[in-house]
Design goal:
Radius of gyration: 22 Å
Order of helices and strands: HEEHEHEHHEEEHEHEHEEHHEHHH
Structural class: alpha/beta
Largest sheet: 6 strands, mixed
Number of helices: 13
Number of strands: 12
Bound molecules: calcium ion
Strand content: 15-25%
Length: 369
């Protein structure tokens, strides 16, 4: 059975995804009997973003082009925007099932598979970008993420980070906890659940419907990403106040998911190239968001006279308390989720102590505070 399965798999592999051609100076492909065979892998990447969407879609494009370039064309990745091959929220299943070899999205979209997936994208009052990368690459996070996706036949890789997001756009001032009562806000995921427990009404809307919903008063507030993406959406035209900080998404990691069978068919040098390209894309997106958020905030404040507001301490303290409850409840689902939660929590508590006397102390000192 096993043998037969392998043969069938190999046949399917030749039919879709892998082409062999005779190229100069290449070693024969494993099992091939013709000399100078060059294997070319034609891979599809499905994404949860609109094609070429700034930062996120272009991050997926960068990852694909890095793989194409670094492999000298031995892997050719074609990128599909959301709905071009599969809808946004079917990316995980499409890559797990082999419809595509690669996916680009964010792990919190797959909370239906496991609530613990959310630890690998963003959780309220969780880790910022620097801390996420520390946890994933050198703090044991990556191993846990791989273990979580293993039963689905997927290999996860970090492939981008937006940095700290903004709290969002509001048409109502938030001065006390009372102001959250009945607040209709577009805020998905765990952040939405926290808002609900604080008395608000979270609404889930795709990016394309945010502007008109805020304009028509269907919602009182929305979060999206940060100045770079929010400026592009024109949200300043339909909201009075721009609140910070983005307590609900402190450093969202984007992911690359790879179909394990397809990855296992690659020779070791190409496997290393896919991993290196993801690491490079991860770094590059954070740099892009840092530079472009900075420039876009300047434009919002100076050209569009946006009113910047900080959430009051009382509000942040309550949201933090509720977030701790909501996040801890993920651990109750199953033993794997508990282990991931405890590892995350242990790392977070330690890194808070370190960053208090390093990053925070430096930023305060630089600001003269
Ligand atoms: Ca967001």
């Amino acid at each position: 059975m096993k043998r037969r399965h392998f043969v069938t798999g190999a046949g399917a592999m030749l039919a879709g995804g892998v082409l062999s051609g005779c190229g100069g100076g290449e070693q024969p492909a494993a099992g091939g009997d013709q000399p100078k065979m060059k294997t070319e892998y034609r891979w599809k990447m499905v994404t949860t973003w609109p094609k070429d969407f700034p930062g996120l879609g272009t991050g997926a494009n960068l990852l694909a082009s890095l793989i194409n370039q670094m492999s000298g064309g031995r892997i050719h990745v074609k990128v599909y925007g959301a709905k071009e091959l599969v809808p946004a929220f079917e990316v995980f299943d499409a890559v797990a099932g082999g419809t595509a070899e690669l996916g680009h999205g964010a792990a919190y979209y797959w909370k239906g598979k496991s609530g613990a997936a959310q630890f690998f994208s963003a959780v309220p009052f969780g880790l910022n970008a620097l801390e996420m990368n520390g946890w994933l690459y050198h703090g044991g996070g990556m191993e846990l993420w791989e273990e979580l996706y293993e039963p689905f036949g997927l290999i996860p890789m970090a492939a981008g980070n937006t940095g700290v997001q903004m709290g969002g756009w509001f048409n109502r001032e938030i001065n006390t906890l009372e102001d959250l009562q009945g607040l209709k806000m577009r805020i998905p995921g765990l952040g939405g659940e926290v808002l609900r427990r604080a008395g608000g009404t979270p609404v889930s809307l795709p990016g394309g419907e945010i502007f008109t919903s805020l304009q028509s008063g269907t919602i009182d507030a929305t979060e999206w990403v940060g100045p770079y993406n929010d400026l592009a959406f024109g949200l300043y035209k339909v909201a009075k106040y721009y609140y910070y900080p983005g307590w609900h998404e402190p450093g969202t990691t984007l992911e690359c998911i790879v179909n394990r069978e397809a990855f296992d068919r690659l020779p070791p040098d190409l496997q290393a190239i896919v991993r290196s390209a993801a690491a490079q894309a991860n770094q590059s997106m954070l740099a892009e968001y840092t530079a472009k958020n900075n420039a876009a905030l300047h434009t919002l404040l100076n050209d569009h006279q946006v009113e910047l507001r900080r959430f009051p301490d009382e509000v942040l303290a309550r949201l933090r308390e509720l977030s701790d409850q909501v996040v801890a409840e993920i651990a109750d689902k199953d033993p794997t989720s508990r282990r991931i939660y405890e590892a995350f929590r242990g790392y977070r508590d330690q890194v808070i102590a370190w960053h208090d006397i390093s990053e925070r102390a430096f930023l305060n000192a630089r600001a003269g505070g």
